[in-house]
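A note from the maintainers: we've had questions about how concatenated examples are separated. There is no special marker in the raw files; a new sequence line simply starts the next protein. For clarity in this README we add a label.
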Amino acid sequence: MSPDLLMIASFLLALLMGVPVAIALGVGGVVGIVAGLPLAMLGTFGTNTYNSVAKYPLIAIPLFILTGLIFERAGVAASLVRFAQAIIGPRHGGLTVVAVLVCLIMGGMSGSGPADAAAVAMVMLPSMKKAGYPQPFSASLIAASSSTAILIPPSIALILYSIVVPGVDLRALFAAGLFPGILAGVSLLAPALYFSRKYRWEDPETVERPPLWPSFKAALPALFAPVIILGGLRSGLFTPTEAAVVAVTYGVLVGCLLYRNLGIRDLWNLMTEAAVTSGVVMFIIALAGIFAWAGATLGTFQHLADALLSLSENGWVLLGLVMVLVLIAGMLLDAISIYLILIPIVLPLMNHFGWNPIWFGILLAMNIAIGQFTPPVAVNLMVTTRIANIRLEHTIGWALVFIAAMAASLLVVMLMPGIALWLPEKLGYVVGPW
């Protein structure tokens, strides 16, 4: 068996045996080095793992993770829900609009789907249950809506994509994700509102409408968070990495001084939790460096790309195949692992067909977002079903509805690249030809 096949096979075998993704990547890389390179190349193990994480933009990842935890525990979601309810008012399907809106806004603070799913589900599920919505429907909708956090800036997945793909401007990626993220949210609202009105969920006469002005004042600190982050990036006041520091600082001020739901002990616990989560992420990135170096040195990724090219010379056919491959991966793996594993393989295809890297990155993110609420793994759905105290299989029917809706928005962005590329171009960022 060739070193290429041995490396890929050992990685897949480790995954099937239940080995954590990080270890499986490391094992695959080591097997590739031993099988196809001089044993002295094992001496690069330490250098490659260090080089993988010794990148300045990666500092933003633990800081945005901490930001999401701070806003989640500070009670931001509750204030946003009340404000959204005050704007939309009682009507059939009103709470579905509230859920999607709050998930989109929360995505502009943390960039983490599971964190947003937990924060919004804790607040929305009791209200939606009281209004007559079935728990499987509500859990599926919130899981799907919170997956847009991977698109709405700041997105942890897009930060990683900008590091893995050379020459991609993170600010352009952030801007490019905004309209597709909103489009994905709107696509979820279409079936949600249809079924809400069909089954007469949420009787307007039994739902209380919060007062607008007090709700707006309570939500104002939360609404300012995305404005500060994105406004600072656009004005050049700070870089994306520095934006993460600003976000943490602002979150601490809001949680401790304005909402007063956080204390010193809470901050210590949140920093500990963020450190553990960040450690897992960095461990995956570090060992993926071994896998990436071995694959690049052996030519494995180029060989796989050539094999895909041999299937068809039609760029749209191969783009469709890549999207299907990413969707399947998204059903089983987290976004970070998918980027680290698949980007080296599809990068030659992107260069061969001249796909715009910003647009292609957004397509990957939208596809991975669908995977976050697609069984069997469905990390967002696991979070919401646990909070709703229902079994995951009870949500499959509703999840399929929302999967189809978001897949339609993905197809629209695929056929109309301008949806993703218009805003970064207007803001003056380098987006390349399209």
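[label: protein 2]
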Amino acid sequence: MLAVLSPGQGSQKPGFLTPWLDLPGAEARLHWWSALAGVDLVRLGTQGDADEIRDTARTQPLLVAAALLAAEHLPMYDVTATAGHSVGELAAAALAGVLTPETAVTLAGVRGREMAAACALEPTGMSAMLGGDKDEVLAAVEAHGLHPANFNGAGQIVVAGTVDRLAKLAAEPPAGSRVISVKVAGAFHTPYMAPAEQALGVIAAGITPTEPTRILLSNFDGAAVNHGREMLQRLVRQVTAPVRWDLCIRSLADLGVTAVIELPPAGTLAGLIKRELKGSDALPEIVTLNTPDDLAAARDLIARHGAPAGHEPTMQFRVVVATSAGTFAPVEGLAEGDMIDSGQVVGHVNTRQGAVEVAAHGSGVLTEWLAHHDDPVAPGQPLARIGGQLS
């Protein structure tokens, strides 16, 4: 099983889009997306210096555009899962079919501008905390009136808040931990971004998303999201909610993902996965896609780990997946071969907090149960296959 990942803010590098402009149609596509995002993506990605492309209003659409531009040169129909870190979720949602690329880039432009405006309201920032006991680190964060913003795995938690409180935390770090200042404009993924969340929500309310065509993991809790409308709501909510990339890594491992491609500018997410899963059987093979020269390796990885290809007519199907961890209970009396309506409940995942309904997000024939009564399941795990017409 193969997953494609989209990086978030902080992964950008000056000139990283330059080699991609040699591909046919790439520059024209970026000019079109620039009009939608309200920034010059071509100039920023080729000539912008480190300070300019660190500007939140510019960085966010630049990253989403870069990921989508590179993905256009991959056989994405053989990719099973996708996820993105922070603003990278917009690109992931487009790759999963929830948003069009144009909508994703437009939302990234709005998101970046509104988050930059929220940063200007009060001097805030972010710091990475490395090492230390997790409970002690979180207790210190709370004691200093700060917020955990990113749980990146591998012992890294990024915290955010006012600059004076961040300075006090750096002067009094918990035992065994280090505090490193992160060069960003403000306290992303905290209540300080509430004005940006509200503004993004107004724009998102006018969008009609579609249902995901592949497994799409959410930063909110690492769970797979079955419905486009729910994912759109999560994308808005994520502006003020912590990024749980640690849970996304765990879901990738639970799903049995054997290979990962990180879209440009690549390297950050690959490093987090390697550190989190070091020495584990779940560590996937990884290709970091930074220039067109890396496309051959990425395509080879998809050929070896992606969905099997063939020329025979195949049944088009949607896979119903678990959104929570627990044990699966299919609806009694529902059998393979039965017709399923869109939105019909096909089972429940029994969790510690109670039963969570699992519904089909497309109509068709229940062609195969992929999990059975009382089977333990993980977020994103396929539970049933709903078949449609032949192609």
